[in-house]
Design goal:
heterodimer; A: alpha/beta; Rossmann fold; 5 helices; 15% strand; globular; B: mainly alpha; Serine Threonine Protein Phosphatase 5, Tetratricopeptide repeat
């Protein structure tokens, strides 16, 4: 699939899965989509390993936009991108946007064939800064 | 106060005899890893309590999980050249600690491994440590004074650069962690609390000081 992929990373697997459900409702299967959440031991949290797996699953040559909730999700996502390394890393962007609204807006933009830059810009419009 | 006069990390590390060589031998590194894991395990509940006060309360458990994972491969890591060993430790911490601490502590070791020479003297270590601190700051989009582990790392670097003894460096690390108590958190979950973060020690600063004391005690002044 040539559309930009979307990855949702929340501390809570319930939030991540629920957000993915809302994205699917908007875009169906037109956008590669993956989510992850939880610390891997049944608790809240995020792990680099799960994020790397989600990026693989949602991978698109057009790139991947990652939506995160709180700080650790962002830091772990940036770490995951670094560990994936080039050349793929330059096509993966961690968005600064609210996770639910950002994921739905970004995916909707992506479903129309927008570039990674356009998808990320759409998500960023939701952030006050 | 009591928690900082607590001497258990020294007691734990005290089982280990410092090597005589200036080289970081494989045996030394394995002992350093074991002592660091012991220290974190001994203080896991305290670290969690600090994090519960102003964070999400997972720091002790997360750090313990990560350092136990490193411990299980201590001999394999120690068999590598120092830069490769540090990078392997960093990668292991990234993959096992979780939370924001995984990338932060992992980046510290990854960057240290990238920057350090195979047989570092004090100047090499100081320079590499300085670069590693910059990498941690970039990873956390943070800087000194924001109530984070950087508030311990930077004074430790300066003490290293200033020729302090290992014992002095350990004391400086403890004092630096203590100095995060009156700070207002500007990064991480604690920053959500605003002024209410004042009056609590940063958990990452405390775990950093614990590790510095443990490592300083074993390495001594031979570097």
């Amino acid at each position: 699939m040539s559309n930009v992929g979307i990855v949702i990373v929340s501390h809570s697997p319930l939030v991540a899965e629920g957000t993915a459900d809302m994205v699917r409702q908007m875009v169906g299967d037109e956008v590669p989509l993956a989510w992850c959440g939880g610390n891997g031991h049944g608790g809240l949290g995020t792990t680099v390993e799960a994020i790397m797996g989600a990026i693989d699953k949602a991978w698109s040559e057009a790139g991947v936009a990652i939506l995160v909730d709180l700080g650790g999700a962002e830091t772990n996502s940036e770490m995951a991108v670094e560990m994936i390394g080039e050349p793929r890393a330059q096509k993966i962007i961690v968005c600064n946007a609210p996770i639910v609204e950002g994921a739905v807006m970004a995916a909707t933009e992506a479903s129309g064939g927008a570039s990674l830059k356009e998808v990320v810009a759409t998500a960023h419009e939701l952030s006050p800064s | 106060m009591d928690q900082l006069s607590d001497d258990r990390s020294f007691a734990t590390a005290g089982k280990v005899q410092p090597g005589n060589s200036a080289d970081m031998t494989a045996l030394d590194l394995s002992r350093l890893i074991t002592a660091a894991a012991d220290t974190i395990a001994d203080h896991a509940e305290e670290l969690t309590a600090l994090d519960q006060a102003i964070g999400d309360g997972d720091h002790g458990l997360n750090m313990k999980r990560g350092f136990e994972a490193v411990r299980t491969e201590a001999d394999a890591f120690a068999a590598k050249p120092l830069p490769e060993a540090l990078k392997a430790i960093g990668t292991k911490l990234v993959m096992t600690v979780g939370g924001a601490s995984g990338p932060l502590f992992g980046t510290l070791f990854l960057a240290l491994g990238r920057e350090i020479s195979a047989d570092p003297d004090r100047a090499d270590l100081t320079a590499a440590f300085g670069k590693a601190i910059e990498a941690v700051a970039a990873r956390g989009k943070s800087q000194v004074g924001q109530k984070t582990l950087l508030d311990v790392l930077q004074p430790v670097h300066d003490a290293l650069a200033g020729g302090m003894t290992a014992a002095e460096i350990a004391d400086i690390a403890d004092a630096a962690a203590e100095a995060t108590v009156p700070m207002k958190a500007l990064r991480g979950r604690a920053s959500f609390l605003g002024d209410r973060s004042i009056g609590h020690m940063d958990a990452g600063a405390r775990s950093t000081a614990l590790l510095v004391r443990t490592l300083a005690h074993i390495i001594g002044d031979k570097g």
